[in-house]
């Protein structure tokens, strides 16, 4: 049991170190969701959905994950206004979701309206 807990802690610690690049984008709200196979086993299919927003970085669209509930609450609050979005990148996309990273903070008119806990 101790070995399992130690392994889990190591995985979380490595994941935290893998997410090091932060960037801030000014963008409009573009809700996104991706359906993907969440199973590591190619012979199984666990239909999973990742929720987040798309951000166009000039070279293409990037997908950043966010929890479902705050994401949908922000949709009506932000509307078509430009917002400032702080993200943290994954070293590689998460599983098959294509997540490039996670949203950590969103500001609208200089006021924080979302902060990842």
Question: What does this entry look like structurally?
Answer:
- It is built from 2 helices and 7 strands.
- It has 117 residues and is an alpha+beta fold.
- Strands 1, 2, 3, 4, 5, 6 and 7 form a 7-stranded mixed β-sheet that branches.
- A hairpin with a 4-residue loop joins strand 5 (82-94) and strand 6.
- It is globular.
- Residues 1-17 have low confidence and may be disordered.
Put the structure in a nutshell.
With 117 residues, the protein is α+β, with helices and mostly antiparallel strands.
Write the layout of secondary structure elements.
Elements: H1 2-18, E1 22-28, E2 31-37, E3 47-56, E4 61-65, H2 68-78, E5 82-94, E6 99-108, E7 111-115
Parallel strand pairs: 4-6
Antiparallel strand pairs: 1-5, 2-3, 3-4, 5-6, 6-7
């Amino acid at each position: 049991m101790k070995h399992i807990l130690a392994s889990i802690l190591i995985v979380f610690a490595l994941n935290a170190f893998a997410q090091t690049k932060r960037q801030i984008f000014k963008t409009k709200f573009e809700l996104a969701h991706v359906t993907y196979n969440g199973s590591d086993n190619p012979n199984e299919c666990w239909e999973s959905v990742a929720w987040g927003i798309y951000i166009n970085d000039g070279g293409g669209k990037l997908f950043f994950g966010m929890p479902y509930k705050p994401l949908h609450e922000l949709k009506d609050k932000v509307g078509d206004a430009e917002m400032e979005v702080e993200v943290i990148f994954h070293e590689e996309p998460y599983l098959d979701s294509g997540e490039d990273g996670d949203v950590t903070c969103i500001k609208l008119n200089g006021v924080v309206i979302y902060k990842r806990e």
